Prior knowledge:
The chain contains 19 helices and 7 strands. It has helices at 3-62, 73-82, 156-207, 221-250, 254-267, 284-298, 304-311, 317-346, 348-368, 372-400, 406-435, 437-458, 472-480, 483-514, 519-547, 550-565, 573-603, 611-640, 642-674; strands at residues 87-94, 99-104, 125-129, 132-141, 144-154, 213-214, 275-276. A hairpin with a 2-residue loop joins strand 3 (125-129) and strand 4 (132-141).
Amino acid sequence: MTPDRRLVGSVVAVAVLLLTLAVGFVSSAALRSFETELRPELEREATVVGSIGAQAVQRALDLGVPFAGLSGLDEYLAGLLSTREGLAYLLLTDSSGRVVAAAGGAPAEFVGLPAGTAVPSRGALMRVQGGSYDAAQPLLEEGQVAGWLHVGIARARLDTALDDMRWDVLIVLLVVLLATAEFLRFILSRLVAAPIDMVLRLQSRLAGGDWTARAPGEIGGEAGRVARHFNVLVRRTNDRWDRLCWLAAESGAGRRAAAVLDGVRDRLRFGAAAVREGLGGGAASARLPLFLFVFAEQLSTSFNPIFAMELAGGQAGMLGAALPLVTFVAAVALLTPWGGQMVSRHGPRRALLMGMVPAGIGHVGAALAPDLVTLSAARAICGVGYAIVTIACQVQLAREASAGRLARSLGGFTAAVMTGAVCGTAIGAVLADRLGFRLTFIASAVLVLGIAALAWRCMPAGGQEEEKRAGLWQAARASFAEPHFVMLVLLAAIPAKVLLGGFIFFLAPLELRELGLSQAAIGRNVMLYGLCMLPAIMLGAWIADRSGRGGSIIVVAGLLNGAGLLAPLWLPAETALPLAVIATGFAQGLAAAPMLAMIPTLSLRPGAPSSAAMMSFLRLAERLGSVVGPPAAAALLAAGGGQQAMLVLGVVSGAMALAYALALLAGRTRREAFA
């Protein structure tokens, strides 16, 4: 790791650690305060219910009915319990604490009040009995305690509210940490890493004898001072060289001096026509715009089906709810190859700026949509922008990758998409709740405009691949004529997305619901996929760069995914399902960067199209796998149940991984035979 990358990583790690500690402390204090405020409300509710129930019994005692002669108490308590939600039990005990009537389920730990217990001056006597708050109302007969009416409210209500708050705080903390890491990485890359890289490149050129290089003069800070010193040194050296040449021409030994100078000129380069060393964009020049763009797109994820149902008047059913999503995914899938052509023709920066136009128009159109058809068309326009922008950022990350870091740089693409999706979905739900659906779409459009300005300012211009410009069909034929690319698509990319769409987004939620989990718990279990995928992306990229065995990593990931889906064979469902989600997330992340890193290498082979075109066809294949996955899982579910569907998907994953391993081995054997 170079010093600048080590500096960036250290600063980001320290900032995230301090932010985690600060937010964790504030969140813990907020949760304690919430519990302190909520408990009196529950106690007050129990007191009110107890006073209402005790009034009828107390009236009978005041009329002369002896406590031991009270009748119909069980029916009375059952009727009172049925009228109030959230009550755990109602118990009537005598003065010694013996239960004489009951309704509901009292906890096993319940103990009645002993004889001689003092009557509270007002309200009820509050206790905690097992998992319930217990409010005891006294019943008086001739001025003495004849019994107690106990009202129990389960702590489960408070615990559920606290659990929901804890998860909300955790999600917000995760969003803040991910967003902070992305912005810090971008700022440090622009202000620290890029200037240091530029200075190191200048130093290398000067050490190699190139005295025509110049540093950009607009850099600020310490790097700018170093760059200006470089420029002064280069200018003075060139001036002295010119003076030396003039003196040699004027001297009497001109021929011998010219021979000496020619020898120096063969080893060193001088010249007034300076070659300016650019500052460079770095991977962050594409990663932050990509993160923000996916963030803007995902703001509407949590409410798109609901908004569609509202516009359809509730008459279109599930088809109406799914139509905007279908048009968006179809536009992304079909236009991704065309986006690759745009990147090849215009370069990543211009293509990205062009892709922002339909994205912004689509968000505005969705905000103003009067009906379901208009909303679906607007989402399709957003899909056009998404197809172009994601390919542009992917190609830019590949071009900015330094030697030996291609997989890690391209792993940043998947990481940025995942973090943007997690952050955007969480914040979008909050914005929709506060601002409404239409204003949230407007917020996405405004954010897209800001991203375009950021990309125009930070991404390097140019970079189109003139030598590999070709039509769409020619690029497709050239891509699928490459055997390794075909193996990658058919045996790795498509199966991985079939498993992702079929298990994570379809089968897992249904099976978790069958276990009796709440919607919030289902969401948290599914979210394990993304949380496990993020570190796995970086791990897979690091291993691929260090070992150069991206294909082997893809095979291991496929086998791991298959093993996770086979977990129901030896584990109970409540353990096997979360484990399968974790294994799928880790396996998908492990293979993501090595899969993308193969494309730039394949594009260098004779007759292959540009890396932008090959990446676009890889993305198209992945989209097709995502579309096929849910229907395939649904068919398996209908045919044999959830566990059988998981087992079939696991066997398919393992079989495809083994087939890819055999294909890699056969290709390696063929190359060795011709070597």
